[in-house]
Amino acid sequence: MGSRMTRSKLERVGVVATAALGLALGLGAFTFGYAKGGSYLTNDPAACANCHVMAEHFAAWQRASHRGVATCNDCHTPHNLVGKYVTKARNGFWHSFYFTTGRYPDPLRITPRNHDVTEAACRFCHQEIVSAIDPAPANAAHAGDRLSCVRCHTYVGHWVR
Amino acid sequence: MSPNAPETPPEPGVVEPRSRVRGRTLALIAGVAALAAVAVAALLTNIVEHRQEARNAFYRVVALTDTTTDPAIWGKNFPQQYDAYRRTVDQVRTRYGGSEALPHRPTSSDPRSVIAQSRLEEDSRLREFWAGYAFSKDFREERGHAYMMADQEFTGRQQATPQPGTCLNCHASMYATYLRLGGGDLTRGFEAINKMPYQEARQHVRHPVSCVDCHDPATMQLRVTRPAFMEGIRLVKARQGIVNFDVNRDATRQEMRAFVCGQCHVEYYFKGPEKRLTYPWAKGLTADSILAYYDSVGFKDWTHAASGAPVLKAQHPEFEMFNQGIHARSSVACADCHMPYERVGAMKISDHHVRSPLLNINRACQTCHKFSEEELRARVEAIQDHTFELRNIALDAVLELTRQITSSAAADSSAPGLADARRAQRYAQFLVDFVEAENSMGFHAPQEAARLLALALDQARTGENALRRVAGAVPVSLPGAAVERARPQQK
User: Fold this and answer.
1) CA B464, CA B372: separation in Å to the nearest integer?
2) CATH number assigned to the domain with residue range B71-372, chosen from the 4 options 3.40.50.720, 3.40.50.10190, 2.70.70.10, 1.10.1130.10
3) CA-to-CA distance for A15 and B318, rounded, in angstroms?
4) Where are the alpha helices (DSSP H) in B297-372?
5) Which of B19, B47, B362 lies at the smallest CB-CB distance from A34?
6) Does this complex have an ipTM over 0.85?
7) Which residue of B has its CA nearest to A30?
8) What does the pLDDT look like over B15-50, one tens digit per residue?
9) What is the distance in angstroms between the Cα of A51 and the nearest Cα belonging to chain B?
10) Full-model pTM
11) Which of B85, B98, B168, B296 could form a disulfide with B93 if both were Cys (CB 3.0 to 4.6 A apart)?
């Protein structure tokens, strides 16, 4: 590019930039629609199985005891508005990242953070029975000191063999 | 435009330096937006590909029938499964199993260039244990399915004793052969092969166990193709109150995922002069019920060369042992651990590389057991170490009894108590061999393995007492009787 810039040159660059922006936005909007991006803002469990990696879990949930009372979001996102969407955004990004790159372990393992979310969800509904049997306070120094509901109740959500 | 062009004086359209910055910013935006468009397009293609993946389970490239024995043809429709199936050539050791590839100089009677390690060299007591039987001549660690034909054809046991065609029931793909020789009747074909000498029968088969031996070619459903198992499992089910059990009609899908393996990984004997392959399950699946059955039909495999006892050889009773364990109790099937599911694209397929779960702990164990690989391996190996220790103690006890019988018989061939002691050796030897021959070193059913070895020690003890004619000693009897003796009386 020369050291000087004519007005017509500036206009040309402007057109290119606008076109590129438009293309990116257009492609982005199409991809968002094609990938059913909007469904991720809902509570519909089918949205979580948009990616086939979750197909088994979704199928297993339909056979599990909690299918009538809890959907994915009830157990896998916190029960407050901010926490819910922060968790959705966070997991949404990383799940897409790992699914796209293919770098994830199989069988899938829950992360400690997400495990805590689920544990809190169990206790949200089953508070009475849990407080009656939990020997350690919720703020125990070591997470290992606390009871984990799903350690024993493996089958309630979605048992995938 | 050319670099050598003389500088032209500013024209009216020339912009100020501030506008130049604006131009660069616009160019930057164009660049970033273009990159973003590329990234989004790449993501879009990726999503399309993943969607595509989820769509096609398989392509039917060739037509498969009951007579398609060659696995390569099935492999055209099921390349993933075929790929894994071919990997059973791998030779990998685990602590108590698996095989090691050892070089072998081919000879005229044994053209193999690679073989597995000799179990007789690993534990020379086994030669004495099986004295007078072909197993004392050559017995090697089992290798993968891919080797089943060669390892049977060229084992030293073939030279020691001519083997019947019956052996092929589990050492080759037999389904099409049975149908052909039986004129469409599986059982008649089975009977025809049983009667042939091994070398003659060998001419009728071409492949190791293959797809058609476990799968229906039209639906891919699992099915049992071995008449001996159909007859055996009918006996087992009859004892559970299920009459006239037809395995291919009545078994559940999950049962079939163990039954297809149980067609071969079992204890068996050749019944009568027609050498009919028979699974000795009429009185139950446990080692002691099998012993009771063998006694009731007066069967022995051979006469022990040193002691003269009418002894039995346990084969590879994985199915029987597994059925006594906690995994069977929890309706886990063989395939769950030995052929665990794996994700290939959007498909969930069972791994046809049949092998030790210890070589695939991630998929085989961790799907159900949420512990680290090291922890799971340690658990398995603790069970195996304990079983191995018990097996060694019991093996020594049997051999001691054998030696005592041998020297007593040498001193006086009609010594009183000799017959009882030989009977005790028969029982003890079979019980130890049952654990020894079973390919899991106790893991398939830890408590059952320990129970059988304790029963073997009890037999060795009663046998020695019989030989010494100890007054008031418990007489030699079938191990089942020993269990009854020990059972607390219930009110």
Assistant:
1) 47
2) 1.10.1130.10
3) 75
4) 318-322, 326-329, 334-338, 361-364
5) B47
6) no
7) B44
8) 567 778 888 888 899 899 999 999 999 999 998 888
9) 8
10) 0.85
11) B98
